[in-house]
Structure formats: C-alpha cells, structure tokens
Amino acid sequence: MNIESYLTEAVRRSVEALYGPLGDEQLQLQKTRREFEGDYTLVTFPLLRRSRKSPEATAQEIGEYMTANVPEIRSCNVIKGFLNLVLDASFWKGRFTDLASDEHYGEAPSTGRTIMIEYSSPNTNKPLHLGHIRNNLLGYSVAQILKANGHTVIKANLVNDRGIHICKSMLAWKLYGGGETPESSGMKGDHLVGKYYVEFDKHYKAQIKELMAQGQSEEDAKKHAPIMLEAQEMLRKWEAKDPEVYALWEKMNSWVYAGFDVTYKALGVDFDKVYYESQTYLLGKSLVEEGLKKGVFYRRPDNSVWIDLRNDGLDEKLLLRGDGTSVYMTQDLGTAYRRFEDNKLDDMIYVVGNEQNYHFQVLKLVLKKLGYAEWSDHITHLSYGMVELPEGKMKSREGTVVDADDLIADMVKTAREMSAELGKLDGCTEEEANAVSTMVGLGALKYFILKVDPKKTMLFDPRESIDFNGNTGPFIQYTHARICSVLRKAAESGVEASREIAPEVTLLPEEIDLVKMLTEYPATVKAAGENFAPSLIGAYVYDLAKQFNGYYHDHSILKEEDAATRSMRLALAAQVARVIRKGMSLLGIDVPERM
Hints:
23 helices, 57% helix, alpha/beta, five-stranded parallel beta sheet, four-stranded antiparallel beta sheet
C-alpha cells in the first residue's frame, strides 16, 4: 500500500463531505515534522475559499471529521493552518504485515523501459585510480537502483583502447622495455603499461628541454620532439592496420585487460556489455562524412573537420584531425549510434567526471544536428566531482594519482587492524577474519564515497571511513551482524519471529517509529532512481540502523517475558535487518552475519 496515496484519498473524501466536490484545489499532504506530534500533515490554506473559515477552524473541522469517520486516524492536532494526523497503531501493524509478507519489498514492477548506463571507461595506458573508483561505485550503484525501480538496465563499459595516449605507452615499451612482460616483472599488466606511459612522459619532457635549449619556443619544442612525432606516426600506422603496430597493440592491451579484471572483481562491479573505441571510431568517421554532406560540418584548409556551434552559445569543435585520425568526439558519436541502434534504448546515462560537462553538451547537440534528436534528447550525463585523499595518506605507484589496487589493499588492511583492536574479530578463524576484514574495508570505502552527493568534490579519509560509531559502512554492517546474532540466539532457543503482530500486542512509540521507517524504503528507492542518487539510500539505511540501535539499547528483545511481544520484537528486528541488507546491496555493499 502506498500510504501517501491512501491518506490523500481519505482526506479528499473527508474534505468533499464537508465542502463539496474539489475543483482545482490541490491537496498538500506531507510527512509531519519531527518536532510535532503526528504522522502526516495536511496544509489547509488552499482549501480556505471552500471552507470560508480561518485556517485554524478549517483544520479543526477536517480533523474532527476524519477522527470520527476514518478508522485509521487515531487523533489530530492543529498548528495554525496545519492539520497533523496521528495514525492508529493497528494501521501500522497492518503495514508491517504487508511489508514482511512482500518478498520483493522495495522493488517496483517492470516499467518496460531499457536504460543503458556507462561507467568506468578506462584508458588502456594506465591502471585504474581513485577517480575510477568513484566512477565505478557510482555507476554500479545507480544501475542497481534503476533495476529496483523496474527498468531493464544494461551496464556498459567503454574502453578507450586507441588513440595517441595508447601509442605513447606502446612506443616507450618498444624503445625502453627490453621485452619486459607482466610475468617477467611480476607486475599486474595495467601497472606495467602505466609504467611505460610515465616513461614516455619523462623522455618527452627531456627532449622538449633540449630543443628549447637549442632556441625553439616551448610550443614548437612540444610539436617537434622526436618521441612525440614517432608516437603520432605510430597512431597513423595503427589506423592503417600496420601488422607490427597492431600486434603490439593487441599484446599490451591484453595485459591491461587482465589487470583491470582483477581490480573490477575486487571492487565487486561488473558489466553486461563492453564496447571498445577501436570498434566504433570508424562508424564515428562515417557519421562525420555524413555531416559533411549535409553541411553540418565543414573542412578547413589543413583537411581537419569542424562544427561551428557559436550560434548555440558554444564554440567550434574538432571532429577529425588534418591527418584523418579521430578524436574523442568522433568515436563517441559512433558509440552512441551503435548503442541506440543495437539496443533500442529508452535512455542512455554516461557516468563521467564533471571536467567533461562541456563534452556532453557538444555530443548531444551534434547528434541533434545530424538528425538524431530522438536519441540526443534521451542522453543524461551523470556528472560527479573529484575525490581526493588527505595529504600524505597514500601515494600511487606513479606519484601523481592514488592507485585503485593500493587503495583497496590499504582499506582491507586498515579494516583488519581496527576490527582487531575493537575485538570485532574475537573468536573468528583466520578465514573468517579475512572475509570480515575484506567486507568491512570495501563496505567502508563504498559507503563513504556513495553517501556524498555525486556533484560534490569530496575528501576521502580511510581511517575515518572505518569508524564503527559514525555515519559509516562498518556501523551499518555491525548493526546487521548484531541483529543476526539476536535472531540466531532466538532460533537456538526455539523462538521464532512472526510476520504478523498479534492483536493483543501494544506497540511502543519507538516500535511504531521503526515500522514507519521501514514503510519509507520503497519511496526512498524511487526517489534515488529519479535523481540518480545513491546518497539517498545511504542516508536512509544509516538512519534506520541508528534508530534500531537506540531502540535495542533501551528495550530487551530476547529477555522480554511476554511471548507475543518477544515474537513481535524479533519480527521487527528481522525486517530491519532485511531492509538494511536490501538497501546496502543497492550500494554494492555486502553485510556480514557475524562480526
């Protein structure tokens, strides 16, 4: 049952019984603010021209009518023109039975819409880093939330496996690698290739410095550095399918993919489809040719292809370089075309950092000018801010970014240390301790990142994220483990939790509050889906765990003497654990049963 819809209809019947059929007046029903007594509040001001009475008198009249005629309303109180409705305990008992009996609680029926969400989008010239972690966690979580909202979701990864940046790593390995491989070096393949990307940059900077010493300007030196000219020639050879260059490209990319797979598995993210820019850039080129024929694009004297978007408030955008090689926009056009054409998508969501906001403005506009408005109008750029660590916490292998593998390993290590200090691993076998440490470390990382609004730049502190007493993943995980412990002890004693609350059981205000909180889960999932906001799920699950912990501190469950009350409390605890488990799964977080 949708409580808001049910109550809105009850209010409508009551108002019409008092004042006649409603016309354009909108009923404004909202949750009662915490500082007032009540569950839902009716704003009476829009109804005054019907009642022809003061706001207070109107609210009082509607309240008295509803208390007398709507069985679910226990009492009402009026604060100025606001009518606070207090629902009867029997109503909440009924809602508890409904949610406890619903195997798919919080999951909407199928909408028939197909949505693709692209996240990760790594380059094959370096390993995944901290920015990729936020990207992957955000994309995967939004995909889970959209599934729970009834959509068919395709999780996609677009691998940037071609371009000048790839050729830089390839050339440096060819010049300075000495045949080094992941096997001979003991390095993950993505780290090995990243090493040679840094090596290229080192030699490039040295050559620029040398040319400037010979009298060239910095701009000219960057253009004429021999190693850069070689990389550009390698890219032209790659696009011409030169056998030697192509074989090197395939070999080094295979190393990177093997490394990526290890990181993805550790993060707990996956994909339904993987696209490669090497397979879509030619389609992008054909779309550019189509745009030239239509007069959408124009060619400059150096043979490069551009689009003029100044009349649209933007600027001129390059589509093809003068030597005929592609740029990111070229391949993004081809990829967008392929996805919409092949999958009959209703919506396409790109999870990409906010430094690419302008790029996606241009992509949508170019698609529209090419005649694909039915696609461009259904593209959403889910933009997110940078994520950083405190100075000196951790350093990447390259010394410039935080390596994803290093961060994951550090989180698990820190979780192991802090859990052991607090006695959370007492009685665990080595295997159990490792499993719990991994679950807590990754849960801390994921929750800390996902609880923040994606648009915000955030500071990630590893030790703060593993605090068992704050707004953290481990706090929520420990709450779930605590409830599981209570349920195990109850089962060992032969006490079972019921899905119904016995009529004779009197619910405490705190118990009604927990039931109310549980009933808000579906609406939270819906709002999170509409706003692409895992942070809403995080805030909800934390509030639920916090509320349960307060209740558990003040009221005994297993030691409660009345059997019916004890059964109710066990049932309530079991449903809190279930909803915590469901909510955390939407964030990609596992919760332990023992801790």
